[in-house]
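It is worth pausing here to work through a concrete case rather than discussing structure prediction in the abstract. The textbook approach is simple: state the sequence, then state the predicted structure, then interpret. We follow exactly that order.
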Amino acid sequence: MQARSKAVWRTSVLAARRDRSDAQRRVEDDALTASARALATSGATVCAYIPVGTEPGSLALLDALRDGGIRVLVPLTSKDSILEWAEYTGEDDLVAADYGLREPRGPVLTAETVAQASVVLVPALAVDRRGVRLGRGAGFYDRTLHLADPSARLIAVVRDEELVDELPEDPHDIRMTHALTPSGGLTALVE
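Step two, the predicted structure:
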């Protein structure tokens, strides 16, 4: 039997996310926020993302990290196919950006700034138990995460059923070290 392609996986996951109720998403996002509070200590830097649409996570998660004394950086859209960063200082400082995203209006930090993070929360459609992450297919994270500190935890944030046994992998894919799910919390992934 032929394995499912990345395109088939993307279609399936996105359809399942659309079918989830707003109430169910809120419960899951609250659970992710509770788990995220323990990911780093005060004074640390965490790279995260601002969720859009049906992506797991919330601004409350970013606010909880900030309330814990953690510096939170989020990606900026770039035409160069590599992620630049800006500090997240709260919802009131966000502006509309390309691809339907929102981002801080603060100073632009270079792609290499990701090396300052002890934790990188990475949006994903799915992740497998080997650490293979399925993204949206643009490759922004795969072209940026090689700049992260080798000891940093690369954490795919997914819904419970999006942590799967095996996904298709391309040579350029950067593997995650952990998954963060609503019910399971932080799970180490095995290579």
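Step three, interpretation. The helical segments are 6-19, 22-36, 59-67. The chain is about 20% helix and 25% strand.
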